[in-house]
Amino acid sequence: MLLLRKIISWLAVFVLSANVLHAEVPDTSRLNPQQRRIASSIEQMSEPELILLLDSLFDTDGKDTILFVMINRQLDTLRNSYPKNQFNDGFAFFPGQRFYGSWNTKMLFPYPDSLYKADTLIELDLSPAVSGPFVYPFNGTFTSGYGWRDSAFHRGIDIDLNRGDTVRAAFTGMVRFAGKQGGYGNVVIVRHYNGLETVYAHLWKIKVKPGDIVTSGQLLGLGGNTGHSTGTHLHFEMRFRGVAINPAYIISIQERKLHCEKIALVRTKQGYAVRPHNVVYHIVQRGDNVTKIAQQYGRTVKDIRTFNGWDGNPRLKQGQQVRVVPPTENGTR
Ligand SMILES: [Zn+2]
């Protein structure tokens, strides 16, 4: 239904733009103040933002023709700036296009290292406007975390469930992969508009197919025990360009909600480190200790320990980064 609406809205844009495109510069003098405000921000918008704006304008029955044309032009400009790529499976638009350049529905993680090496810092917008309201994929008991486990690296988290339980999309996006694949068993991968991918493995039944647009909370499949799995559970991963990210950095597993809505992925030797957007860090200098840093930022020692997840006071190394403001205090929520 959503896809249909998207197609209709695109058709509307083409028809509308054909009529107005002759004017070299859209005449914005007829716009009301609110429309003018939107018009002035169009050039700064990313593709997902433009698509969402387009969708919201479509509901106004085409009263904003000038805005439609401006958005369409900006989308053209953005798309012409992307590297030339192979649009597999006939998709001319797919989520996270600027980070990937291709859409592969046959392989779990087709991304070469070169993609991953290209950037050092990527900002991810997880706010409802871009990603839909976050939904915990299944409200079951957390049974296993990300990291080394029995001499193998576990690239996701495990959530206990019974066969047939509803597994839901964590964010809005498009299904990129849905099928059976080795140890993952029946697995669904959803690409989100910010470029993040979420992975839902060991499903009993898959209820979506590649290309489906899913909204957060939508049914993807039924929980099960397929692939390399002992006991029914959901194996859930978060990845960017194929590189796994510890979901606990993004979601509070205890509270089953996001730590914060805007995060920055920072490339490290091992993968991506996740930081709340705009979080404040102190770089440890010679002679610093936790008490001194706490005083410097008007915090208590206990605060600093909490922000950094420390049980006691660790020995600080010069150049180390110490979090001095919690994620909730810098306007990211
Ligand atoms: Zn697992």
Low-confidence stretches: 15-23, 83-91
Number of helical runs? 9
The residue-averaged pLDDT reads: 80
Helix/strand-derived class?
A: alpha+beta
Which hetero ligands occur in this complex? zinc ion
The CATH architecture of the largest domain? Distorted Sandwich
Oligomer state equals single chain
Instruction: Please state roughly what percent of the residues sit in beta strands, choosing from under 5%, 5-15%, 15-25%, 25-35%, 35-45% or over 45%.
Output: 25-35%
CATH class of the largest domain: Mainly Beta
The CATH homologous superfamily name of the largest domain equals Glucose Permease (Domain IIA)
Sheet of most strands: 10 strands, antiparallel
Estimated radius of gyration: 22 Å
* SSE string, helices as H and strands as E: HHHHHHEHEEEEEEEEEEEEEEEEEHHE
Structure, described:
The structure is a single chain. The chain has 333 residues and is α+β, with helices and mostly antiparallel strands. The chain folds into three domains: 2-81, no CATH class; 131-276, Distorted Sandwich (Glucose Permease (Domain IIA)); 281-329, Membrane-bound Lytic Murein Transglycosylase D, Chain A (Roll). The chain is built from nine helices and 19 strands. Strands 2, 5, 6, 7, 8, 9, 10, 11, 12 and 13 form a ten-stranded antiparallel β-sheet that branches. The protein has a three-stranded antiparallel β-sheet with strand order 1-16-17, with no helix packed on it. A hairpin with a 4-residue loop joins strand 16 and strand 17. The relative contact order is 0.11. Residues 15-23 and 83-91 have low confidence and may be disordered. It binds zinc ion. Zinc ion is lined by residues 144, 154, 156, 158, 235.
